[in-house]
Amino acid sequence: xxxxxxxxxxxxxxxxxxxxxxxxxxxxxxxxxxxxxxxxxxxxxxxxxxxxxxxxxxxxxxxxxxxxxxxxxxxxxxxxxxxxxxxxxxxxxxxxxxxxxxxxxxxxxxxxxxxxxxxxxxxxxxxxxxxxxxxxxxxxxxxxxxxxxxxxxxxxxxxxxxxxxxxxxxxxxxxxxxxxxxxxxxxxxxxxxxxxxxxxxxxxxxxxxxxxxxxxxxxxxxxxxxxxxxxxxxxxxxxxxxxxxxxxxxxxxxxxxxxxxxxxxxxxxxxxxxxxxxxxxxxxxxxxxxxxxxxxxxxxxxxxxxxxxxxxxxxxxxxxxxxxxxxxxxxxxxxxxxxxxxxxxxxxxxxxxxxxxxxxxxxxxxxxxxxxxxxxxxxxxxxxxxxxxxxxxxxxxxxxxxxxxxxxxxxxxxxxxxxxxxxxxxxxxxxxxxxxxxxxxxxxxxxxxxxxxxxxxxxxxxxxxxxxxxxxxxxxxxxxxxxxxxxxxxxxxxxxxxxxxxxxxxxxxxxxxxxxxxx
Length: 519
Ligand SMILES: *Cc1c(COP(=O)(O)O)cnc(C)c1O
Description:
Layout (H helix, E strand, L loop, with lengths): L51 H13 L21 H7 L2 H4 L11 H18 L3 E3 L5 H18 L6 E5 L5 H8 L3 E5 L9 H7 L4 E7 L11 H10 L3 E6 L11 H4 L3 E4 L19 E3 L11 E6 L3 H7 L27 E6 L16 H37 L15 E4 L1 H6 L3 H10 L6 E2 L8 E4 L7 H20 L1 H5 L12 H6 L7
Helix pairs in contact: 2-11, 4-11, 5-6, 11-14
Bound molecules: pyridoxal-5'-phosphate.
Pyridoxal-5'-phosphate binds next to α5.
């Protein structure tokens, strides 16, 4: 049993201190000499009176209650909670990066600009898209950026298309992003196989439709095998295809959305590219586009000039109000190596009149890009290909081991994840929620539950490529034991978790009225 950590206020002992200050060597004066009465406290602040070791132990113990990828298996479907190699952190914490200021002149930022430029080239190669913006701060933000690009493109063509088609298996952020951009969202139901229904798509994709928003692999963990035809239907009707590529780890190194006919793609660095996520921390959702959509990408674009062509190119580099944020005082000046040999120069180019503008301050969450870049460099081409293979292999291994014990309504093989239905178990008296709670007692994070909506009592399981066979087997054993328990005594499963600091909080109240203050 995990003991409950008291609030730090409960450890308070009058007069106990973390530190002692030297005696004051200037005259004591009342605060009212410096601040108006209205700004002063009516009573003393209620601060905990504790020693340094009380503070250290309290917060260390709390941090150890945190469930995380670094401590336990985390098969949270759709979220790709894979292990983030620590070398990524080391790279992003290098002083040369952390001490940069975004307003520093470009000639002093050549290193980071080169990194961002090279990283964009890697994403292009992996995805088959023609250009990327790294600015969007999350997957959903990438979707919104993509929708803005679609709107700008259609407006430029003089087309008035007001509809976006979204399959009913889409991630919830897809219809939300389209609606936020002012589009009318039309959902089309999946077919019996859990894939986009081609007939329905054809009938729905009219001259009013700006784009189809598709997730591939979809949220059932299935590859949309008709993707070439799907793209053709959209293109023949004069529309575009937006692909939600948050689940790119299933395809990485194996297939490229750009080759499938996709026009816009977002990637989640904080999923596929192994940067940390969760807890509302920073993410990054780069957007890749085809050549014809490149003019609409956010500015500035990071570009490289060979010094030979510097003079011509420099004239075109304008900025916001004639100057770049990286260049507060003057224009781009040339960068030469010490020996005076010509070399590449990285610049931020604002000269894109059709651009949708900025979607994030400066260059977005650059720390995430450094981590993702490090990740790709350390994997190398061979590692990148293995990533996709292992992600798919691990998921199919689990799927195969669990299929006798749980219903798996769609597909016979899966990509990086699969969705089981606990319908059978619910009839016996323990639901998907109960199973999820029971798993916590085994030391596993629960899978995603009740999503996608098209599967009753859904449990969406994504093991990721970083887990060992032993871990997968332990998870299988737990899932089978739980299924067997439900056959005998479902109330035991319902009455869980038993080993966590708290059992089942009122989930609405815990979020809306968290008890953070000591009264
Ligand atoms: C995670 C995810 C998103 C949203 O990404 P955020 O970074 O959380 O905004 C969108 N689509 C799919 C399929 C996802 O898995």
